[in-house]
Amino acid sequence: MRTTIDAVVIGRNEGARLLACLASLQGQVRRLVYVDSGSTDGSPAAAAAAGAQVVALDMGQPFTAARARNAGLAVLTDAPPDYVQLIDGDCTLDPGWIPAALQAFDQHPTAVVVCGRRRERFPQASVYNAMADREWDTPVGQALACGGDALMRFAAVMAVGGYRDDLIAGEEPELCLRLRRAGGTIWRIDAAMTLHDAALLRFGQWWRRMVRSGHAFAEGAHLHGAGAERHWVAEHRRALIWGAAGPLAVIAAGALHPLGWLLALAYPAQVARLARHSGWSWGVLIVMGRFAEAQGALGFHLNRLRGRRRGLIEYK
User: Fold this and answer.
1) pLDDT at 311
2) Both 188 and 259 in a single domain?
3) pLDDT for 158
4) Rounded Cα–Cα distance for residues 282 and 279 (Å)
5) Residues 225 and 110 in one domain
């Protein structure tokens, strides 16, 4: 029987990037669903004209990317595909990706998710874009999680309930954790998958992106950190140690004795250690990023104690 593949694209105000995304999927999938989250640039009409089935999210409810993806998956249940390609509206799909991913599924019978190499379209545009491009170059082989772009077995995703609607970040690793608990495996293969336009051109954008990561680490550890996988416990602890406990320890040590301020040298030492392998800009930004991650993590815990949920942390 012929393998069926559908695609779910999510986006808001992506403009020409969305049209390029939809064009890259034409002829590669059976059905193309675009879920729009309150665009004001005519994206829904443009997507419909490009042949996509458009779903407009009710913006009266809190928006998350997870909720948008679930809305797209729900549309496909009337004629379920074998596989669904999840992709963000600021990405384009590589022409050879789907054949390569299907081959990986054949080679790994327990695979429920296959992802490849997401590349940044303009890594030379800023140091932040270059960092994002490097960040996505994860090891090839069996993995713990995927990112926003991946080919998935539709039935497996639906069997675990899809994404968690309420997560504002880190929804893909959380889904992959539940898929692995259900007996599935996640694979990263050495194949071009998508080109992404991060458009990270300013320090403030990068900072908010790191705050978002810290929030995801904290919420992921809160939800699943007690499990055998220790989901994001190490990342959460690292953010709090370097971004919060470390500065407090430096201040306390310096208040007790002038030599205590020497404890602050741990930070330039960490920069130098990272720079040996990845360059000075990488070392400086990674260490600075721990403060942003701590901000996001502490914000999550404060809101949790208050019984509140934080809205989106957007950087575009």
Assistant:
1) 87
2) no
3) 98
4) 6
5) no
Q: Are residues 188 and 52 in the same domain?
A: yes
Q: Tokens standing for 128?
A: 């932040």
pLDDT block averages, 10 residues each, the chain of length 316:
92 93 96 94 94 92 92 97 97 97 97 97 95 93 97 98 96 98 98 94 96 98 97 98 98 96 97 92 95 98 94 85
Question: In terms of domains, do 273 and 142 share one?
Answer: no
Helices (H), the chain: 16-25, 43-49, 65-75, 97-107, 127-135, 154-159, 171-181, 203-224, 233-240, 246-256, 266-278, 280-306
* Domain span at 83: 5-200
| Other Cβ atoms within 10 Å of 44 Cβ, number | 19
Co-location of 186 and 62 in the same domain = yes
Say how many domains are in the chain. 2
Residue 148: give its domain's CATH number: 3.90.550.10
Which single residue is written with the structure tokens 């694979």? 187
Q: Is 10 in a helix, a strand, or coil?
A: strand
Q: Quick check: 189 and 140 in contact, CB under 8 A?
A: yes
Q: What is the pLDDT of residue 2?
A: 84
- Does 44 lie in the same domain as 170? yes
Last residue of a domain, one of 200, 223, 249: 200
Residues 66, 148 contacting (CB under 8 angstroms)? no
166: DSSP letter: T
Instruction: Decide the pairing of beta strands 91-93 and 141-143.
Output: unpaired
What is d(CA 312, CA 215) in angstroms, rounded to the nearest whole number?
11
| Cα 85 to Cα 111: distance, rounded to the nearest angstrom | 14
And the tokens for 289?
């990023």
9 near 17, Cβ under 8 Å?
Answer: no
Strand partners, 92: 195
How far, in Å, CA of 115 to CA of 172, rounded?
12
Token output for 213: 């990561």
